[in-house]
Amino acid sequence: MTTGIGTKCIQEGWKPAQGDPRQLPICQSTTFKYDTSDAMGKLFDLEADGYFYTRLQNPTNDAVAAKICALEGGEAAMLTASGQAANFFAVFNICETGGHFISSSSIYGGTYNLFGVTMKKMGIECTFVDQELPEEELAKYFRPNTKAVFGETITNPTVSVFDIEKFARLAHSHGVPLIVDNTFATPVNCRPFEWGADIVTHSTTKYMDGHGAAVGGCIVDSGNFNWLEHAEKFPGLTTPDPSYHGITYAERFGRGAYITKATAQLMRDLGPIQSPQNAFYLNLGLESLHVRMQRHCESALAVAKFLSGHEKVAWVHYAGLESDSYHALAEKYMPNGTCGVLAFGVKGGRSAAIEFMDRLKLVSIVTHVADAKTCLLHPASHTHRQMTDEQLAEAGVDADLIRLSVGLEDVNDIIEDLKQALA
Ligand SMILES: *Cc1c(COP(=O)(O)O)cnc(C)c1O
């Protein structure tokens, strides 16, 4: 029985038969052997299931994708080389040149560039919206060529909570799917499909791997969105694909159409596959995800409480705090905890933040987040350092904002380090 989320973390995915290796084998092979030309031909026609080239599919990757699919409660899933590749594919699979989509403006900086700059060069337009706007205001941003809505369960780096049900209602009433990047919450703490999201993406680089070892991504489809009902919006899924002998994905593959198309067409042509070796590391991380998330949340809450009571701290954002403006939404979508990331500001702005960071001994300054080692980043000095305080305010990032990712060390040691640096 694999009903509990922790049991799924360990038991889903690789299901060894009698005499098979107990741990997931790494299929370190680019290609797969067939006895007849006809058997191989059927694979190329998508008429038979099977492996032929690792750029399209690999058994190690598929087992790990199946585990993440089970954790999210989805229909089908695929791994990608990175979270960036996952978010690009998730949108590009249904939104081509001339298309438009809507994204929350509170998202990871890399995704913001991808949507606002790089995809724009491909003729795809993204409108960024303030996710706190009421539904009737948000509805005004939909256009006849709008193909999707995008947001992050917990936003990076501002750690706001995305109102999944509100955006699912909006997306569905306009005949388009809701895509949710669930990287920070992970399916241990939030399963967006249960709240109406249609597609979920992950940077598995973060908590899923959990040890800062391997960059990776994943896309999971709930299978719930009915492409044929909105056929005119999604011709890529509902009209014949000339590069696959005229297959119409939504007709042939039903609930599996979206991931089949992303694999057979996008992965085939663009190629950002995850290496089977990295998929193996990811699987190791997933086996302890439920245990680690619980600890990340407990420690982050203790750190958030410590910081909010400290005289040199100007403000703290952590939805786990009862005083936080996102606490009610977090209680609804993530009753067991949010994640280990919090944001705070020290009194004295940019220069005080720099002095504080330079005094830290245990907590390290790195461009990373959401793994076992406690780390922090100061956007105004690092990722956004070319910006003035005014430009930062426009981007929604305060000059004093420090993003702290609480790791798995003894929480007292983390707090002691913060305490001595603040002093
Ligand atoms: C890191 C991150 C990404 C990008 O993932 P990579 O694996 O670094 O490509 C996307 N979304 C969120 C929320 C992230 O934190």
Tally of individual domains: 2
Number of helices: 17
**Alpha carbon gyration radius:** 22 Å
Largest sheet: 7 strands, mixed
- Ligands: pyridoxal-5'-phosphate
Query: Could you estimate the helical fraction of the residues in percent?
Result: 25-40%
By DSSP, the count of extended strands is 12
Mean pLDDT across every amino acid position:
95
| Low-confidence blocks of residues | none
Q: Give the overall form.
A: globular
CATH-derived architecture of the largest domain: 3-Layer(aba) Sandwich
Query: Taking strands numbered 1, 2, ... along the chain, how are they ordered across the largest sheet?
Result: 1-7-6-5-4-2-3
Please tell me about this protein's structure.
It is a single chain. This protein is α/β, with parallel strands linked by helices. Helix content is 38%, strand content 13%. The protein has 2 domains: 28-284, Type I PLP-dependent aspartate aminotransferase-like (Major domain) (Aspartate Aminotransferase, domain 2); 289-422, Alpha-Beta Complex (Aspartate Aminotransferase, domain 1), CATH 3.90.1150. It has 17 helices and 12 strands. The strands form 2 sheets. A 7-stranded mixed sheet has the order 1-7-6-5-4-2-3, sandwiched between helices. A 5-stranded mixed sheet has the order 8-9-12-11-10. The relative contact order is 0.12. Pyridoxal-5'-phosphate (PLP) is lined by residues 82-84, 87, 108, 110-111, 152, 156, 181, 183, 203, 205-206, 215, 217.
